Amino acid sequence: MSLKGAAYIAGAWEHPTRKAPDKSIALLHAECAKGALEDAGLTKDDVDGYFCAGDAPGGLGPLSMVDYMNLKCRHVDSTDVGGSSYQVAVGHAMEAIAAGRCNVALITLSGRPRSEGQATGTAPRPGNPAAPEMQFEFPYGPATANLYGMCAQRHMYEYGTTSEQLAWIKVAASHHAQHNPHAMLRDVVTVEDVVNSPMVSTPLHRLDCCVISDGGGALILTKPEIAKSLKRPLVKVIGVGESPKHQMGGDVDLTYTAARWSGPPAWEMAGIGPSDIKYASIYDSFTITVLMQLEDLGFCKKGEGGKFVSDGNLISGVGKLPFNTDGGGLCSNHPANRGGITKIIEAVRQLRGEAHPAVQVPNCDLAIAHGTGGALGTRHCGSTVILERE
Amino acid sequence: MAYVARKIPFVGTPDTNPETKPFFEGAAAGKLMLRRCTSCKKVHWYPRELCPFCFGDCAWEQASGKAKIYTFSVMERANPPYAIGYVKLAEGPSVLTNFVDCDLAALKIGQDVKVTFVKTEGDGPTLPFFTPA
Question: Which of B10, B12, B72 sits opposite A153 (nearest CB)?
Fold first, then answer.
């Protein structure tokens, strides 16, 4: 049985903070939960399913957080696949709702890497040496920026993609961010600004990289009967897909992402294709992340992403595929170093007609929110959510 | 870009995962040790006891040390800068590594490289790295 339409996103809320040294991570999660419940017109007593990932504090995050928020849940899920966990959670929450395991699902994300001074992209983070890959990777300095830099370098080699083409992705994000009062970077930038910004890890410049921000977000998913009893515009989940990609025993191919595998089941469930999409939230840890995912989701042919993103094609009101109209991770927010949930929140704003008027897509009835978690250069998960305004 | 050696960190010890201890013993003796499946005959990376292609049992063998650069990225923000990359070994699999004793600005995809060995900092083990052939 298809899960299409088994759940609606009834509440969506993004924390306005980008720097929160005086708040605990647990409090940020709870403030996001409160915001999303108020947005939906529900209360904490209505929540009977809770979904979080590795950013939830404590080794047993879902238990710590349901205790902290004093939620009475019948169902918890803490699948952690990095920044893509929240698209995955939407799919899992829809399954749980369809199976009758919960009626109102709460998904939260929060963190404060900015206040904690984390050099997210440039300092390799040691992990548990018992992770089987750790001793074969960590000594070689796999920081986030160089793991994505390797993908960009190979994409340029195979397809002739240029730094100027990648820069157009940042340019588009900056055009949108100027209208978002909460965005960290609100100045409109040019292709020249991007390619002349300092090199971080070849071929990625500083302005090819996302921001480091504190904050978070939350979503409320619920079954159709409850969603239709609320006063908010109806945003139906019509397609989901998830898939990990890794080094495949040494058969490494860095020219594509897991979106190649998470996209097709989502498109099939939704019964639509890329040409039907009016607005796209695409994970933007780096410019190259966006370009590769657009190719792998089928918005253009493999290798033609550079041409596709050029000349403002991603700018709302200018190009054919408005993307990340809140400014995305590249300009607005990348809370907890995980941008999945903010992708879904901006897609919900667009479908409700509640995006900033300067970037609102007219008659926006179909949107995609795609996430990537982990690192494209080693192992990651792709997760796709397709939404429809009813 | 002149090459400046950096301190190579290591987490745990070669004993942390008993499965891969022979790899580190090989590297200490200047040998890049690989795992080949006794069943499907394929070589994989990183080394595992059970073949990731067929779950067959694997045996150790010494690599030729010959490889080509699949991709790389020079972390210019680091001090000193260093070049991470994948090399495709002559035996098949691609391996994450760093390029040492070379002009980091002259690295090219497709370039021939060969294995060399560098000791990690403190009491850490010796590991394979690659340098232009």
Answer: B72
